[in-house]
Design brief:
InterPro entries: IPNS-like_sf. Helices cover about 30% and strands about 15% of the residues. With about 425 residues, it is of the alpha+beta class. The chain has 2 domains: about 40-115, no CATH class; about 120-425, Sandwich (Jelly Rolls). The strands form 3 sheets. Strands 1, 2, 3, 4, 5, 6, 8, 11, 13 and 14 form a 10-stranded mixed beta sheet that branches. A hairpin with a 5-residue loop joins β9 and β10 (about 325-330). The longest helix has 26 residues, at about 235-260.
């Protein structure tokens, strides 16, 4: 049995709250009001460490007040762009007037609604800058530019490739081995169908563990020590720094989503403690595999909780919204893309579905390749990707009111580590087991 229990169910509904009453949120989104009081004490208990502000509003709080007068902007991808700064200010103890409290509630509703209705979300986190992302990409480009033999020194297949490097030609896209997924693809309108991979993914990946790991766990292979490549003295500090900032952004989104869903603020983050979070940049050699239509990562979902992407220097990532629409990713400068993973799907009883995506060489990729050649830049496409996980020994099962969701029976309790090992087996990163 798993040693880590799931968080307790949320408090009972009170004060006449109704699941059917919508909360203000971004255009096109409406979610049930959280099962929590709407009064100032709610914000004090949930966001703040001191009482609600008096009528005089200090300058920093004016930003929170102005927030209530506008809706989150939309990106060119037609996803809401959520600025995490107001939530961070409130969580740090910057008391907000009542008007701003409702705005923060609406912001949380936007996060949960976007994850539920589209499986994706764009966020701005003032702690994660474009300069940080560029520094990370520079270091990882230098690593992947090494010879294949040199990179293979960091390969750890006996640890299920969960630390160190995974060479190209190892990982098998789920769409090649999952009959149900293949049938789903056939049923899609032709313009929304993914590209068809011809075999294992021709991409490399480096797995770098982020954050502490448990001292005792049944799943040692999923919580192994990091592998540090020689000859890159800045590697560890760069990876640790960017990984910590990315996981911090994920934790805020997880808290906001929990509030928006009517769960306790720490419903998700308490399960993430000491999880096997992985900063997992991919490296795709565009000099070798740069022809239009090449599939670097076949149509698949992510097995983890939430995935976060920084901007890549080369386009090619496509995602599928819950309505089946295929969308080319265009992350605005200074933003991060969040996608739902399978563990979030499990915890919400299927109310949030894991986001599907692929990476393919497109016409826009070819244009970026030509520009990179003119500027004498690296022709390795690096993804700035982090996988956040539920702790390996924690239990995956629908939380709180999600236990009553129509499809909750499809998500029976299972140790997160056992689930991850089954998924790794299916995509050829672990010895085969029955799914």
């Amino acid at each position: 049995a798993c040693t880590t229990a799931p968080p307790p169910a949320p408090p009972p509904y009170r004060g006449g709250e109704s699941l059917s009453r919508p909360v203000p949120c971004a255009p096109g989104f409406a979610v049930p009001a959280p099962a929590l009081p709407l009064s100032a004490p709610f914000l004090h208990a949930t966001f703040l460490s001191r009482p609600v502000a008096p009528p005089a509003v200090p300058p920093r709080q004016r930003n929170l007040t102005r927030l209530s007068r506008r809706r989150p902007p939309r990106s060119p991808m037609d996803l809401p762009v959520v600025d995490l700064a107001p939530f961070l200010q409130a969580a740090a103890g910057d008391a907000a007037p009542a008007e701003a409290e409702e705005a923060l509630r609406a912001l949380c509703a936007t996060v949960s609604a976007s994850l539920r209705d589209t499986g994706a979300l764009l966020v701005k986190d003032p702690r994660c800058t474009a300069a940080d992302n560029d520094r990370f990409l520079d270091v990882v480009e230098r690593y992947f530019a090494r010879s294949d033999d040199s990179k293979r020194l960091q390969e750890r297949p006996h640890l299920h490739y969960q630390v160190g490097v995974t060479p190209e030609g190892v990982e098998v896209p789920r769409s090649l081995v999952d009959k149900e997924m293949q049938d789903r693809i056939k049923s899609m309108p032709e313009e929304f169908q993914p590209a068809t991979p011809k075999g294992p993914d021709p991409k490399w990946r480096y797995m770098w563990r982020v954050g502490p790991r448990p001292s005792n766990t049944r799943f040692k292979e999923l919580n192994a020590e990091p592998v540090i490549p020689d000859g890159l003295p800045e590697w560890k500090e760069t990876m640790d720094s960017w990984g910590a900032k990315m996981i911090s952004a994920i934790e805020v989104v997880a808290e906001m989503a929990a509030i928006g869903f009517g769960l306790s603020k720490d419903a998700f983050t308490s399960l993430m403690k000491e999880g096997p979070h992985l900063l997992a940049p991919t490296g795709s050699n565009l000099l070798r595999h740069g022809s239009e239509g090449t599939v670097f990562a076949g149509f698949h979902y992510d097995l983890n909780f939430l995935t976060i992407h920084g901007r890549s220097r080369f386009p090619g990532l496509n995602i599928w919204l819950r309505n089946g629409k295929k969308m080319e990713v265009k992350v605005p400068v200074g933003c991060l893309l969040i996608q739902s993973g399978k563990q979030l799907e499990w915890l919400t009883g299927g109310e949030c579905l894991a986001g599907m995506h692929e990476v393919v060489v497109t016409k826009r990729t070819l244009e970026a390749i030509e520009l990179a050649k003119e500027q004498n830049r690296s022709l390795w496409r690096i993804s700035s990707t982090l996988f956040s996980h539920i702790a390996s020994d924690a239990t995956l099962k629908p939380l709180g009111h999600f236990a009553e969701a129509p499809n909750a029976h499809s998500y029976p309790p299972i140790c997160a580590g056992e689930y991850v090992e089954q998924e790794l087996s299916a995509i050829n990163l672990k010895g085969k087991v029955a799914l």
